[in-house]
Amino acid sequence: MFGEIGHFALVWIAISSSISSTLYAWQKWHIRQRPFSLSFLAKLNGAVALLSLVLLAYLFISDQFHFQYVASHSNSALPLAFKIAAVWGGHEGSMLFWVFTLALWSAFISCLHRTKKAYLQDVLWIMGLFVGVFAWFTLVTSNPFTYSQVWLEQGRDLNPMLQDVGLIFHPPLLYLGYIGFSTVLAFALAALMQPQINQHWVALARPWAVSAWAFLTLGILVGAWWAYNELGWGGWWFWDPVENASLLPWLTGTALLHALVAANHQQQQRFCALVLALVTFSLSILGTFIVRSGVLTSVHAFAVDPGKGITLLAIMVVTLIAGFSLLFMRAEQIISRPIVSIVSRNYLTLSAVGLLIVASFTVFLGSFYPMLYELFGLGAISVGAPYFNTLFTPLTLIALSLMGAVPFLKWQHGNYFSTIKMAALFAVCLSIGALLYWFQVANFSLSVALTWGLAIWVLGSHSLLALRQTRLSFMVAAHIGLAISAVGAMMHAEHSFELNRKMSPGSVVELTDGQINYQRTDWVIGPNYTAERAVLTLQQANKSYQLTPERRHYPVRVMNMSEPAIQTFWHGDYYITLGSKVDTHSYAVKIQYKSYMSWIWGGAIVAILGALMSLVKWQVSRGRYVTVEQV
Predict the structure, then answer these.
(1) Using one digit for the tens of pLDDT, what is the confidence trace for 34-63?
(2) Is 579 exposed, middle or buried, given 0-12, 13-18 or 19+ CB atoms closer than 10 A?
(3) CA–CA distance, 470 with 116 (Å, rounded to integer)
(4) pTM to 2 decimals?
(5) At a CB cut-off of 8 Å and minimum separation 6, what does 181 contact?
(6) Which long-range contacts (C-beta less than 8 Å, at least 24 apart) are formed by 3-7?
(7) In what helix (H) or strand (E) does residue 544 lie, and over which residues does it extend?
(8) Residues forming a β-bridge with 503
(9) H or E element at residue 390
């Protein structure tokens, strides 16, 4: 019964969104009549989508394996938290979550902008179109409420690679970020649909853009942390195609934030902001296509169905064609003020947008060039980490150089005194980096030394700005966070090491700052797995830390998984992986030291906190910005 209600709720969303969108368009453009309000329907569909998702979760919790999706991704022995997370752990459930998130964002817009003005109704109409399209896609090709063809008493269990706390948080956060950018696109396209282009769309869209960016950033951060903790490889970013799929909209979304700032404060880059709003959401759809189509091989891809992937690709193409057609039809009416000085914050903002677009193209080319190369029958090639690291290192150094200059410049013109201060501080920070390299402090390479110097440059200049303004703004927090993460990434790449040893109870491995002792091997029985657990101790000076890596066997899926043990310090992590059994009592043990990992996570958290602070500020002082009644 509950499954049928959830199915009916999904049918309701698809039909109601389609009918209301069609009637609204008919009234507005065909009979030239003021259309009805879509606000109530947006709220209702948000509630119905939530009901459908909750009922699917109930099917998992109550072990109703006569539903195909539940049987494929759950088991009665699966812990409760993972049963709930399994709702979005597969293709069908994740697409229902897409529909729910689209409906949720649409409902939020109708709640926070309580008006019947034509512009906001057009925004809700565009959101309703997206809700309807993805609801029909889920209903026809990816319905999670279909019955199993045979009666099953047990399910196949959730993929052991997904049985981690990361599954509980990573996909929802990522989808909230992906789909959050649909709100920005809706505000942008609705502005172009007005008889006179609504220039206030930028101020209205900025909080939604920051919200989507914060969710996407947090989702990527949790995903990187999940891969680092679960896969046992010891890395945090592998330039995997699916990892790149989430990075692409993040890069263009960051460029969009910069363009929106310029458009809002200086009436510049308006056309650029519109283009980036369209491209960013399209790249979000592309990311979903990559995961589900099977066109790219990845450990993160959980569905290989070209038919479903092509449908998503078609949705993206239609969105791009419709969006760009409307944009070019109204291009002559999109007027921006010119940039009059190179030494200005306006020019730096434009440079930041350009740099982020170059970075996006770099990732896009590296991810899809091998596929196109093979598609044209030219053979098989691989583009890996060396390509991305080689190109992103100079881009990162340029970005840090530009970011550090922002606090010293005015929007239109820089002044002589500020320019002198900026040049002096920049020279001092570069000198610090040069000295670190020259005297081979901690064996710094040139790129690492420059990163340290430029990170100090960003931290120093933005600290001065924060003191001058007596507050910590989103820009200051985001730039400082990126500088911290950049140092962490560079140090991780060049100051980590790995040891592979055969160990048994009583074995000792000497390290530069201590030693690792293998104490014993325990047998462990988990809720849906058995495991061999090694008990090791890390001895450093007068302190001792216990590490317990495991090799798990999941009998239902007949899969083996390594669960690494991690000991975190401010300067890095000791990362221990228990490998295969070598003889009766010995195992292959991989000991890795991962330098400055906490700096990578910490920098991202600082940037996210800056976004949250800006959203709180917007909510508290909404009167300082354009209100809906002015639209």
Answers:
(1) 777 899 999 999 999 999 999 999 999 999
(2) middle
(3) 39
(4) 0.93
(5) 209, 212, 216, 249, 253, 256, 277, 280, 281, 284
(6) 3/55, 3/56, 3/59, 3/64, 3/67, 3/145, 4/145, 5/51, 5/55, 6/51, 6/52, 6/55, 6/56, 6/59, 6/145, 7/52, 7/143, 7/145
(7) strand 543-547
(8) 587
(9) helix 385-405
Helix, strand or coil, per DSSP, at residue 423: helix
Give the H or E element holding residue 577. strand 572-581
Tokens of 351: 């440079």
What's the token pair of residue 130? 């997206």
32: amino acid identity, one letter: R
Q: What is the pLDDT of residues 556-611, one digit of tens each?
A: 888 888 899 999 999 999 999 999 888 888 999 999 999 999 999 999 999 999 99
Residue from 325, 111, 283 nearest 181 by CA: 283
Residues 504 and 442: their CA atoms lie apart, in Å, by 33
| Burial class of residue 131 in the structure, from the number of CB atoms within 10 Å of its CB (0-12 exposed, 13-18 middle, 19+ buried) | buried
What angle, rounded to 10 degrees, do the helices at 597-620 and 474-494 form? Answer: 170
Per-residue tokens: 279: 């491209």
Q: Residue 487 is encoded by which pair of tokens? A: 């140092």
Asked whether 234 and 261 are in contact (CB, 8 A), the reply is no
590 - beta bridge partners?
500, 577
